[in-house]
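[Protein data]
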Amino acid sequence: MELKPYFTPVDFDSLGFNDNYQNPAYLINTVLFQTAEDEEPSLSGFDMAIMGVPESRNSRNNPSAALAPDEIRRQFYRLFSWKKPVRILDLGNLIPGKEIEDTYEVVASIIAHLIENKVIPIILGGTNDLAYANYLAYAKLNKIVNMVVVDSRFDLGDDENTITSDGYLNKIIMQQPNCLLNFANVGYQTYLNSPEDIDLMQQLYFETYRVGMLRKDMEDVEPIVRNADLLALDISAVRRVDAPGNPNASSNGFYGEEICQVSSYAGLNDKLSSFGIYEYDPTMDYNNQTSQLISHILWYFVEGYSHRQDDLNFKQKDNYFKYSVSVSEATSELVFYRSKKTERWWMVVPVINLKKDTEQQYLLPCSRKDYETACTDKIPDRWWRTYNKLNR
């Protein structure tokens, strides 16, 4: 697939860099930018590719989100690089399709192409419905996907045939064939979601985590995010004081430091293969506060990536400690694994095929707390939820 025809190169003059940024350690001097004079970029040797998607036609009330990509770049490229080099290609800004569906199709195809070439796409939106296009990329690749969304709202929508920035999840749920294995919402706020939607998420065995509960111990976010193939971040999940550049911002939400921690966990996730940030409105921003925070979110994501440990090779049994726990509610022992390299935990969830009389094992990221819960003769909630979903 040729990428160059779909993008407009970054306009350096508009970003406002000057002689103060000559230090080679600044990101403006370490990222490779696709220019109009360049030939089709070779993806070989790159770890990540940044793509701006100035698309907001399906926005409910945030049309200025289309202006976001370059405002984010303006702050991001002023930061210093990481100790361990990460090879990043900036493709520029996508040329929107004639119809919004054309944009979804092209975004999905480009993301799929990057993933096939083992390059992680970083999508700078644009509005939240682009998470649907991100999902479509995995459908094109026939890959089962675990999706984690950081959002104060569920964005379910009322009509499976209509997509909006605050209603795209129904479209994903109803799509056939469906490649969504699990969906997790991190940081929702109860009073911003109807009781019916909250009940529906539970009925679907989706994972939902209130921001107030996670704040008690942000380390609880790590195993949730570690299960993701793609992560979509709606900046409205951050409280208005820290990120005013969003019309849907709430007085409550994640603090700036907390959302950077979530982003770092995403980068550390060995299997996460795409990352998007959406719903930033530069016209509502105050003193570049939100674009600066988003630049820090990106920085922590890349730093997390630079510390990945390749911690998913369970065929090498010597790399893990194995624990078996008897729980009275379970028909067999609960099995846990702990990595000797990173101290991260997984628990085994059986997947039973009654027709073939077989059983497979699904390794679900978890925390030491889940193991300790099992040791008190209780089955962890995440184990139950995943078991019920996989064995419906």
Observations:
- The radius of gyration is 21 Å.
- The mean pLDDT is 94.
- The chain has two domains: 4-306, 317-390.
- Residues 289-306 form the longest helix (18 residues).
